[in-house]
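sorry for the late reply, my laptop died twice this morning and i had to redo everyting from scratch. anyway the thing you sent over, i finally got around to it. pasting the sequence first so we're on the same page, its 473 residues, then the predicted structure underneath. double check i copied it right bc i was rushing
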Amino acid sequence: MSEELRERKKVPPFDRQAMPQQEPEQRVKNFREVPIGYTEEQARREALRCLDCKKPLCISGCPVEIDIPAFIRLISEGKYIEAAWKIKETNSLPAICGRVCPQEEQCELKCVIRKKYGAVAIGRLERFVADYERSHGTIKIPQKTAPTGKKIAVVGSGPAGLTVAGDLVKRGHKVVIFEALHAAGGVLVYGIPEFRLPKEIVKAEVNFLEQMGVEVRTNCVIGLIDTLPELFEQGFDAIFIGTGAGAPWFMNIPGENLNGIYSANEFLTRSNLMKAYLFPQYDTPVFVGKRTAVIGGGNTAMDAARTSLRLGAEKVFIVYRRSRTEMPARIEEVEHGAEEGLIFHFLTAPVRYLGDEEGRVVGMECIQMELGEPDSSGRRRPVPKQGSEFVMDVDTVIVAIGNGANPLIQRTTPDLVTNKWGNISADPETGKTSIEGVYAGGDIVTGGATVILAMGAGKKAARAIHDYVMSKK
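ok and here's the structure:
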C-alpha cells in the first residue's frame, strides 16, 4: 500500500476493529446476542482499512454479488443509510448475512490485505449498516419494475426462498411464499439460536419483503394441502422449491431409542421456535440433564451445545470423530463455545448408548479414532482404534451429524427427479428441475450447507425463473 493512501486514510490496514461482545460468564446465563456490534466510530475506522481495489476480488467471493467496496466506501464517509441501501440492491437480508454467513470462507477470504494484516471485517460492517438502518427507521423499499402479470410460488421461507422472493418481486412479479410452520424464516428461526440470530431480526427482514409486495402464507404444507400440479392449476407460472434439509440423520447404533436422546433438529426447534428456553412462560419444556453430549462438529452441533449450557447443563461435551482441524463449524463459534465452557472430545465416536431400568440414557460407550487417508470430502477419514473403548457418563445426548432432504414434495411429485440421497436434482446455475416451470435451490438440492450458499442458489434461480416466465406466451 502506498504511503499516500496510508496518509489519506489515517488508519493502518492492520488495525482491525474487534467486535464488542458479552463476557462468557455473563452470556452463558442468557439468550441475548453474543456480539454487541460496532459503534459508529469502530465501523468507520474498520471501513477505512478497505483499499477500494480496482479489481475487488471480495465481490467474486460473495454468492449474492454485493458491491462490497461501494458499501464500505459509504461507511467510511459516514453515509450508513446509503450503505445499507447499496447492499440491498442485491441482498434483501443483510442483517441476517452479517450475523451468520461464514465471511471468513467467502468474501473476506479474497481480501487482498488478509494474509498480511487480516481481512477487512466485511460481515461485521454489513451487520452494522443493516442494524443502523433498522434502528433509525429509514427502511427504503426498492423501486420495482411495472407489474408483469406473472405469478410465482415459493415453497419454503428459508434463506433460498426469501432470496428468490425478494429478487422476483423487484422484477414486477407477484410472489407468494408457502411456509409449513407458523413463522416464516425456515432454518433461520427454527435452527439458529437466539444468541446468534435474534428472531426479531428475521421477522424484520421478512417484514421488509412483505412491504415490497411478497405475500407470505404460513401453516401451508405443500405436498399435503396442495401438490405442485395443483399450484399450476391455481394460476402460478413457475414454482421454486426451497424446503431445505429437515430430516435428521442418526447413527443407527444400539440404544438410540432411549429417552434423553434427541436429534439436533428437535432440540433446537423446541428451544427456538417453540420457546422452550422461556418455560414455564411458554409451555414447551425440553429436558436438559447435568451432563450433555453433542455428537458432531458443525455449526448445528455448536448451536445445540451452547443452547444446552444456557438451559442449565453443568457439563456439555462436543464429541467429534475427527480433529479440531477438520471441524466444519465456524472458527468464531468454536472459540465462543470454548470460552463458555464446552468440553471437546476430538477423535472420538459413540458406538452404543447405555440405559437404566426406566429406559433413560445414562452413559455412552465411545471409541477413540485416528485419522487415515482423505475421503471424498478431502478430509482425512477417521479410523477406529481397536481396544480403545471407554464409557462417558451422560444423561442427555443430542445428535447433530447432518440432515437429509425434506421428502414430502418428492413423494407427491413422481416426475420430479432426485438423487440417491433424496435431494432434488437441479441445474446448479439455474435451479431448473426435471419438470418445466419448477426450480429448486438451497439445502433441498445440495444437502445441508450454509445460509449464504442457499441465498446464492436462490439468486441464480430467480434470474432463470424471470427469464422463463417472461418468455412464456
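The CA atoms of residues 153 and 231 lie 8 Å apart.
thats about all i looked at so far, will dig more tmrw
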